[in-house]
Each structure stands twice: as C-alpha cells, then as structure tokens.
Amino acid sequence: MDQLRSPGGCPWDAEQTHESLIKYLLEESYEFIDTVAESDRAGMREELGDILLQVYFHSRIAQDHPTDPFSIEDVAQVITEKLISRHPHVFGDKKVSGSEEVVANWEELKAAEKGRTSALDGVALSQPALSLINKLLYRAEKYGVDINVPNYSEESPATPESVGSALLSVIAWAHKNGIDPEDALRMQSKQIMREITQQESR
After folding, report:
1. Using one digit for the tens of pLDDT, what is the confidence trace for 34-72?
2. What phi, psi does 67 have (nearest 5°)?
3. Global confidence as pTM
4. At what angle do helices 129-142 and 160-176 cross, to 10 degrees?
5. Range list of H helices, the chain
6. Do 43 and 35 form a contact (C-beta atoms < 8 A)?
7. DSSP, res 67
8. CB-CB contact of 171 with 134 (8 Å)
9. Other C-beta atoms lying within 10 Å of the C-beta of residue 117
10. For residue 74, what pLDDT is reported?
11. Mean pLDDT of the chain
12. Nearest-angstrom CA–CA distance, 174 and 66
C-alpha cells in the first residue's frame, strides 16, 4: 500500500480519500454478508481480504494527515488494548456467570471509557434507517427511556409520516419479541427472489 500511494505508484490509489472509499467499504461488507448467507467459504475468505484491504487503505491515508496521523500499527494497538480492557474476565480477575454478563460488562466498560451518559451517545447515525431504529429502541430500553410507539392502522392516509410511524411500530414489535427486523426482512427478500426465479424458469 505504501508503494501504491507513493510517487511512481498507482495514480488512482494516490487520489483516494477516506470519503471516496466509504462506498467501497460498504460494498465489500455487504458482499461478505452475502457469502456468509450462502455458506460460501471461498467467497468469505476473498471478501474478508477485500475488507482488510479497506482497513489498510484507510490507515495508509491516515498516515498523511498533517496534524493527527496514525498508521495500521496504531489501529492494531488500539483494538488490542480494547480487547484486553473489555475482557477483564479473561485478562483480569473479574468473574462472570455467562455471556449475558459479559455483554453487560462490555457495555458498562464502553460507556465508562467514552464518558457516555445519554442513550444517544455513540449511536452510528449513518447506518440504514431500519437498523438505526432498532438500535435506538435497544438504547432507550437499556437507559430506561419510554418511547411513544404509534399504533399502525391500514386506514391511515399514506404519507411519509404515517408510513414511518407504521414501520416504527413493526420494528418495535420485532424488538420486543427478540427478533432482528433486518434479518426478518432479509428472509422475506430471499423468498421473493425464489419466487421470481421460479416464475422466470417456467
């Protein structure tokens, strides 16, 4: 990557920025998700390599920052320290009864490290709306915040507001029952694809 970004290397690679590469990071992540869904081991290996390339690429770009540079080694150091600090039951003396307590400890340590006091702190606002709503519902529940979830009615006029309210009520229903709405909707998309394939093959 150093050679690609350096003089005499690849002009396209040299021109890239964090912003210009975002779409590729998303694309490679979605492609990896597809290989997992298809149990495609060779594909998983390839797509993980593509995601790793994005990590290296962004880290190399970061080295050129004029005031706050960091390298791939710095990235690795940060995640190493995080894994150690978030697993005191492995690298320390803390005792846990099971995975639920591990998750609770992780969230507590994370909030303390980042100084989070609000249910909204640290929520990735750039994620798709479906997963964003699900995350907000999870955070609200965790922080004891009551959310007014509207009741869905097919008789309501179809407007952006009413459709948004209807979707919120369905996602809240899924969340309440421990169902990931993204996974549920993805299952339905696969069913639609099967139906399309069946009809096209006739």
Report:
1. 999 899 999 999 999 999 999 999 999 999 999 999 999
2. -120, -20
3. 0.75
4. 50
5. 2-5, 11-15, 18-37, 41-63, 72-85, 88-91, 99-114, 129-142, 160-176, 181-200
6. yes
7. S
8. yes
9. 9
10. 97
11. 90
12. 47
End-to-end CA distance of the chain: 49
The answer to whether residues 86 and 110 touch, using CB atoms and an 8 Å cutoff, is: yes
Chain segment 138-150, per-residue pLDDT in tens: 888 888 888 888 7
* Residues near 152 by beta carbon (within 8 Å), at least 6 away in sequence: 165, 166, 169, 170
Q: Please, are residues 57 and 18 in contact by the beta-carbon 8 Å criterion?
A: no
Cα separation of 200 and 32, whole Å?
27
Domain layout of the chain by residue ranges: 1-70, 71-115, 123-202
Residues whose CB is less than 8 angstroms from the CB of residue 37 and which lie 6 or more positions away in sequence, other chains included: 186
For residue 50 the two structure tokens come to 């593509």
Contacts 24+ apart (CB under 8 A), 113-117: 113/85
Written as six digits, the tokens of 33 are 């998700």
CATH fold group of domain 1-70: Helix Hairpins (1.10.287)
Task: Please name the residue that has the structure tokens 């006091």.
Answer: 117
CA 15 to each of CA 25, 72, 161: distance values in angstroms, whole numbers, following the listed order: 16, 19, 41
CA distance 43 to 49: 10
